[in-house]
Amino acid sequence: MTPAAGPGNRTATNLSHAQRERLAYIEFRLYFTGALGRADLINRFGIAPAAATRDLALYRELAPNNIRFDGSTKLYRFGVAFVPMFHRSSHRALIALSHGFGEGDDAEPAALLACETPALLCPPPLDTLATVCRAIKARQPLAIRYKSASSEETERVIVPFALVDTGMRWHVRAFDRKRQSFREFVLTRIDVLNAIEEEALLHERPEHDNQWSRTIDLELVPHPRLDCPEIVSRDYGITDGTLHLRVRAAVAGYMLLRWGVDCSPDHNLTDEQYRLWLHNPMTLYGVENARLAPGYQEPACPATSSQAIN
Q1: Looking at residue 168, what DSSP letter applies?
Q2: Distance from C-alpha of 29 to C-alpha of 67, rounded to nearest angstrom
Q3: Name one Pfam family in it (predicted).
Q4: Alpha-carbon gap, residue 192 to 155, rounded angstroms
Q5: How many other β-carbons are positioned within 10 Å of the β-carbon of residue 66?
């Protein structure tokens, strides 16, 4: 969230971090719920009533058109000439609206509006997640016991470097010393044995993971079978007929599966969930998890196509 300059004598950029956080919260509540009171600031930040009053007065000084005081309810309300002073993405706004603002403990934060989001059916154990994250930050190997879908439980050493959200489960991208290759491991299948006090070797680092380093261009269009492609274009923010996305090869298959994109060369998937079609399926050539992309077919002679080279 980037603060912009306000119209008053002071600007949000020369305030302390704590002040900016409180002013951003004031603006968020005004913008998305239409009103807030001193109690909202007091409860959110644990500040005294006098401090809450000063913050509200400061916001009014910086952005007088954004806020008005309703004496009948003792609430501050959305201003009719509102112009946001802080820049925030829709993605971050939706997270705050649906999950609330965390309080730093085990209490479940309350959503600011009625909202339903898909539940993560099996979140990873917190201690496993914390241990993996520490190893990522320290660039250290982990000795683990892992249960894969196709084999018995095995012990191995991995060098983790990134978390991956597939939309269904959380994985960790890591170098696997047993297989001598980079791959994903499902966090719920990991039992950490111990952290190894050494640094990752040069060839085990993410810059040597070709699938992670490689980015591919996806050209998504409304599915040709649909009678009203303009509706799909509006749903997905397609403004010129094609939605262009760049993703890592290491996650492309997961993303296309999650988004329900028909990746068949002749757009032959007709089920209702396929509202988008991958216009350039050859871009998936050489992507290790392309098999996860709905309808994807490995080209017979990919080397003859200019699209096969990325």
Answers
A1: S
A2: 11
A3: WYL
A4: 10
A5: 23
- Residue range 36-51, pLDDT digits in tens: 999 999 999 999 999 9
CATH number of the domain at 44, please. Answer: 1.10.10.10
Taking only the tens place, the pLDDT of each residue in 151-183 is 788 999 999 999 999 988 999 999 999 999 999
Pairing type for strands 2-3 and 86-87 reads: antiparallel
Range of the domain at 227: 214-308
Looking at the structure, tell me whether residues 24 and 95 fall in a common domain.
yes
- Helix, strand and coil percent figures for the chain, each rounded to 5: 35, 20, 40
pTM of the model: 0.80
Specify burial of residue 180 (Cβ count, 10 A radius: 0-12, 13-18, 19+). exposed
Residues 27 and 86 sit within 8 Å (Cβ to Cβ) = yes
As a whole number of Å, the CA-based R_g of the chain is 25
Q: Tell me which residue of 204, 190, 253, 261 sits closest to 232, measured CA to CA.
A: 261
From 157, 178, 209, the end of a domain falls on 209
109 belongs to a structural domain: no
Using CA atoms, how far apart are residues 258 and 270, in angstroms rounded to an integer? Answer: 17
Q: Which residues contact 13 (CB under 8 A, 6 or more apart)?
A: 3, 5
DSSP string, 212-279: HH-EEEEEEEE-TT-S-HHHHHHHTT-SSS-EEEEEEHHHHHHHHHHHTEE--TT----STT--EEES
**Contact status, residue 290 vs residue 249, Cβ threshold 8 Å:** no
